Task: inverse folding
């Protein structure tokens, strides 16, 4: 009994450390597809703060999203890690790695609905041009306009300068309509010895239809309802997509920038990212939102609940 | 490519042993029609006015033509001249509704236009007493247009812009009822849903009322089976929740009928 129990403890410890420093770095494999879905930006049908109702004809869009799959695209998986308070489908799969890791992203275009080419283009990591995923006629190859039914494997490396939060998005000839439809996601790369947070929240500021959205959803209750407990280390992965600037603001909280200054509102331009961490000690229900007021009124606002 | 309407589409048609299928097609200016010879005979697709022609198509061959000018374009098979077809090219088209509507509930109509963004489009409806104005909309940047209509009974709609009008489409309006009942099996709760009159394959959504979602929130979506029923299996909530089932369009959002409210979950622990 006793030796077995000890082995169990050692194994549990090993699992907890699996994401901790590894000299050679791990290979992290993801299977992702561009998948057609029907997306509702306002499932509860209203802006609860202003009391404005929205009809499904204004809020429901046929679109294409990045969707995580099991190996060889056998079956769809949730885009979010277990226990996450993020919703599925938008943004795309949270791609996690650690400095020194290699990422192998197998991508398949399943967009038979709109019949458009798609690709994946990653910020912040190291790769050869054949994994750039950006369309340039006469120069780019099969990575940049993966046609429906076709696949491509992107090979990336998280270098010492890759630690942090980075966006990825479609950069194929269809990138305009694809990004507008939600084809973007976040890469979260920890430093070699950095401790993973207890809670990780992904916030993507981007326009969606007539709305200004967080993760493709507009207005409180529709946008992610993030939850944590007092004592948790919480991390916010924030990116902006589209053509406008956004300011990330959380009520009742402050965080310290690398230069030592406290902040409670920070600006992001298109494709810029922000990683914010704090140790939670403020129970209650709080707002998080873009402080560009026109954006907030158009839906870029959500709630964050901290339990004791 | 630049003068191509944003909403242009590719449309497939079939050549059978002695007929074109469909023999009449409504397309948008800029649309491309692709015929494939699905028979074991040779055929052609030849315009009556001679403006296009496929030449001989063997079994499995295909022929595509882009229609750039509005109007009726009759065509035939030059090998079997009795085989006739027609492509009607329009500057705006209304999509045929994909599912029946419910009386006096909003229903989305959509269409495509080869007209500049911002062009005014009027939706007209005929419920038996002639076409009348229903609502107005405009062409979006992507060449589509959208409108919401609230029919009381089965109605035929058309979209009008200037002198142009679309072929009519018929929206079937059915008064349907949805009922739901829940049974608890320990950690699992089953919610059984039935729609009458029978509507196999229709979409139903299970909603719960959540404070943090500021209202009714969809948690599951299903298609009705052949018997017009569906069963949702959910984890029994730790506290009592208001639940209801909604019959919707395939979008999972446009409500056609709602069930009464049920309470699922464990009762509050006694003090």
Result:
């Amino acid at each position: 009994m006793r030796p077995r129990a000890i082995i169990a403890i050692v194994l549990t410890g090993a699992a907890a450390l699996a994401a901790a420093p590894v000299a050679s770095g791990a290979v992290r494999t993801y299977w992702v597809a561009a998948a057609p879905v029907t997306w509702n930006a306002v499932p509860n049908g209203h802006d609860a703060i202003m009391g404005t109702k929205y009809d499904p004809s204004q809020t429901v869009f046929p679109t294409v999203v990045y969707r995580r799959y099991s190996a060889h695209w056998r079956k769809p998986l949730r885009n979010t890690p277990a226990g996450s308070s993020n919703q599925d489908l938008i943004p795309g799969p949270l791609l996690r790695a650690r400095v020194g890791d290699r990422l192998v992203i197998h991508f398949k275009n399943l967009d038979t609905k709109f019949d458009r080419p798609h690709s994946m283009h990653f910020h912040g990591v190291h790769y050869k041009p054949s994994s750039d995923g950006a369309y340039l006629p006469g120069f780019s190859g099969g990575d940049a306009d993966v046609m429906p039914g076709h696949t491509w494997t992107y090979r990336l490396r998280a270098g010492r300068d890759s630690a942090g939060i980075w966006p990825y998005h479609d950069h194929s000839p269809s990138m305009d309509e694809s990004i507008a439809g939600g084809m973007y996601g976040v890469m979260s790369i920890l430093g070699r010895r950095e401790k993973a947070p207890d809670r990780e929240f992904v916030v993507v500021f981007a326009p969606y239809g007539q709305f200004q959205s967080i993760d493709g959803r507009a207005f409180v209750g529709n946008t992610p309802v993030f939850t944590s407990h007092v004592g948790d280390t919480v991390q916010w992965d924030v990116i902006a997509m589209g053509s406008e600037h956004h300011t990330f603001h959380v009520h009742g909280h402050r965080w310290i920038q690398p230069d030592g200054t406290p902040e409670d509102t920070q600006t992001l331009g298109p494709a810029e990212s922000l990683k914010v961490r704090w140790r939670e000690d403020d129970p209650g229900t709080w707002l998080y939102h873009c402080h560009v007021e026109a954006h907030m009124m158009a839906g870029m606002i959500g709630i964050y609940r901290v339990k004791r | 490519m630049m003068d191509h309407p944003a909403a242009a589409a590719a449309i497939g048609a079939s050549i059978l042993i002695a007929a074109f299928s469909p023999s009449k097609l409504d397309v948008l200016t800029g649309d491309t029609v692709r015929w494939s010879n699905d028979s074991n005979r040779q055929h052609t697709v030849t315009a009556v006015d001679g403006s296009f022609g496929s030449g001989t198509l063997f079994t499995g061959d295909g022929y595509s033509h882009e229609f750039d000018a509005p109007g009726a374009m009759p065509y035939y098979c030059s090998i079997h001249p009795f085989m006739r077809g027609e492509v009607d090219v329009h500057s705006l088209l209304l999509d045929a509704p994909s599912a029946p509507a419910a009386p006096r509930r909003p229903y989305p109509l959509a269409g495509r236009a080869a007209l500049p963004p911002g062009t005014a489009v009027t939706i007209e409806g005929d419920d038996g007493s002639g076409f009348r104005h229903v609502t107005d909309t405009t062409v979006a940047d992507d060449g589509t247009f959208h409108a919401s209509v609230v029919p009381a009974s089965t109605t035929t709609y058309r979209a009008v812009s200037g002198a142009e009008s679309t072929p009519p489409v018929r929206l079937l309006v059915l008064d349907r009822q949805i009922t739901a009942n829940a049974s608890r099996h320990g950690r699992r709760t089953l919610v059984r849903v039935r729609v009458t009159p029978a509507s196999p394959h229709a979409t139903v959504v299970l909603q719960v009322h959540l404070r943090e979602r500021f209202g009714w929130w969809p948690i599951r979506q299903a298609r009705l089976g052949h018997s017009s029923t569906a069963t949702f299996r959910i984890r029994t909530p730790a506290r009592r929740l208001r639940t209801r089932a909604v019959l919707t369009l395939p979008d999972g959002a446009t409500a056609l009928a709602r069930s009464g409210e049920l309470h699922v979950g464990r009762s509050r622990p006694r003090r």
Observations:
- The longest strand of chain B covers residues 177-185.
- Chain B touches chain A through 22 residues (CB under 8 Å).
